[in-house]
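Dock NAP; give full complex structure.
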Amino acid sequence: MTLTSSVHTLFSSLTRQKELFHHSKTRRPFVTLSFAQTADGCLSTTSSERLYISHAAALRVTHQLRADHSGILVGVETVITDNPQLTVRHVPGNNPLRIVLDTNLRIPDTSSLLHDKCGHVLLASDQNAPLDKLQKFETLGAQVLTFPCENGIPLPLLLHKLFDLGIRDLIVEGGGQVISSFLAHGFVDFMTVTMGKFFIGNEQAVRYRVTEPISLEGFNAISLEENILFWGSPRPVQLAPENSVTERHYASI
Ligand SMILES: NC(=O)c1ccc[n+]([C@@H]2O[C@H](COP(=O)([O-])OP(=O)(O)OC[C@H]3O[C@@H](n4cnc5c(N)ncnc54)[C@H](OP(=O)(O)O)[C@@H]3O)[C@@H](O)[C@H]2O)c1
């Protein structure tokens, strides 16, 4: 696949951000958040239904992004719901190490990624997870890393561990809880969002949350078939106070 020049600008920005990242100071991988959302900000209609937001061109970009990272990470709910492979298929490239956040080892033992022989799988779980499950997944070829957990997998410890294992760049694809956790910890160095044309307006829809207002530095956007792809580096932003210029500006529109 040849990337169009507009897509090249995305990869140039990503490469530049990776070059600026201080591994020696942070001792963690560079983190790219990459997901698809509806025009009203939903990741999925409900946690048990799949919505195809990305069209072919955007899918190729997603797979190119995967090939550009040494690790890929999702939450266990995404594996339970979507049974994803998390491999590079739509473009040439190497598969990243696949990592699942799974405190209690709830991942179904029939999950594709445990059987497809497309590269290593790492399950991040609680140190108190049942031993029989841990042994079962190790027998299936997965590596199980255990952590002291209070509220899910502690991301700072996990990222340091991944760094020690040689992972220098990590793509985080979802779902909503995982995206929210990475954003809340300030561990997102770059993000790409594929926006689709749907508005689903469903109370049960899967969404992500931001705890603090953020804005994307180096913001850029391109149109790809029926998607808009935008990207940038999240930075905290001060919102204007009530009755501020912004409000007066809106009133004047
Ligand atoms: N549109 C997209 O790009 C996209 C991408 C991926 C997924 N999705 C959709 O997202 C939905 C799943 O999202 P979801 O929000 O329900 O779940 P999720 O983010 O996939 O997984 C969340 C689960 O991960 C585990 N976890 C462990 N440590 C965590 C931590 N530090 N932070 C966050 N989670 C942690 C928790 O389960 P335990 O407590 O059991 O460990 C938690 O319930 C599916 O419908 C899927 O189709 C959409």
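Observed: The mean pLDDT is 93.
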